[in-house]
Amino acid sequence: MSTTTTTLTPAPAGSTGPAPSKAAVAGEGRIGLRANLRHVGALARRNLLQIKKDPESMFDVLLMPVIFTLLFVYVFGGSVGSSLGGDRHDYVNYLIPGLMAMMGMNIAMAVGTGVNDDFRKGVMDRFRTMPIARSSVLIAKIVVELGRMMVATLILLVMGFALGMTLETSVLGLLAAVALSAVFGAAIMWIFILLGLSMKTAQAVQGMGMLVLMPLQFGSSIFAPTQTMPGWLQAFTDYNPLSNLADAVRGLMMGGPVASSVWWTLAWAAGITLVTAPLAVSKFRKKT
After folding, report:
1. Shortest CA distance to 140 belongs to which of 49, 60, 6?
2. Per-residue pLDDT tens for 137-190?
3. Residues 87, 224: contact at Cβ < 8 Å?
4. What are the tens digits of pLDDT across the range 242-267?
5. In the chain, at which end, N or C, are there fewer CB atoms within 10 A of the end residue's CB?
6. Distance CA 187, CA 275 (A)
7. pLDDT tens column, 14-66
């Protein structure tokens, strides 16, 4: 009895593989959970090997938390800290949970540009000819980017504690805050995957991403309290999912009411995933 082994090896960079066969697409529905998980693991390993060959791709993860923390603490810490009724130390306690909420948004952009680049090189065409679940290719991307997000979060927390941040609740509260940020970050990654599959170039994905990121980040409670903002902007921040996430993380780490913010954050994450994940998988199947 002979055994056929499927090897998940992408086509060489710059090559264009054949279009996905009907047999491969039809066979996707018969792939079991264990096989699907095995495919995700193999593809995640492929993405990790790419990072190993290109360590510069980790510069954003390593440097972004340091730069953002130092910039906002020492440029805005005095004035915003005073508005909080304290000083720069109080602003550190306010800022770090907010930056945790922001990490997933910034790192998610790399997922979209990576998917777009893989299609341009023909790697995704090779994957689509294999008898694997189409979703496993995209889920593997998200798994690796969540790992990068955890590295950035760890560096951010180290910076926060080095600058005098104090954890007012418990380690469990901190872990819950990290987990909530990861859940929301994974949901946002589906948006950028869809952008990466829909736009022609990685530069276009980055440009559109910035148009989405900037209003959401600065029109929220990440960097400063919203009470002093104009009424129309406060109305926007009330419905901004990043404000809910920042308030939830802040409550889990520093104390205060968290139930409403946590549930709204989970609802946003679930809604975004339910809408964008099927669209992204469908676009992945049909993209030419």
Report:
1. 49
2. 888 889 999 999 999 999 999 999 999 899 998 999 999 999 999 999 999 999
3. no
4. 999 999 999 999 988 888 899 999 99
5. N
6. 10
7. 444 444 444 444 444 466 677 778 888 888 888 888 888 888 878 888 898 99
DSSP string for residues in the chain: ---------PPPTT--PPPPPHHHHHHGGG--HHHHHHHHHHHHHHHHHHHHH-GGGGHHHHHHHHHHHHHHHHHHHHHHHHHTTS-HHHHHHHHHHHHHHHHHHHHHHHHHHHHHHHHHHTHHHHHHTSSS-HHHHHHHHHHHHHHHHHHHHHHHHHHHHHTT---SS-HHHHHHHHHHHHHHHHHHHHHHHHHHHHSSSHHHHHHHHHHHHHHHHHTSSSSS-STTS-HHHHHHHHH-HHHHHHHHHHHHHH-S--HHHHHHHHHHHHHHHHHHHHHHHHHHHH--
d(CA 109, CA 191): 9
pTM of the full structure = 0.81
Measure the CA–CA gap between 145 and 139, rounded to whole angstroms: 10
At 149, the amino acid letter reads M
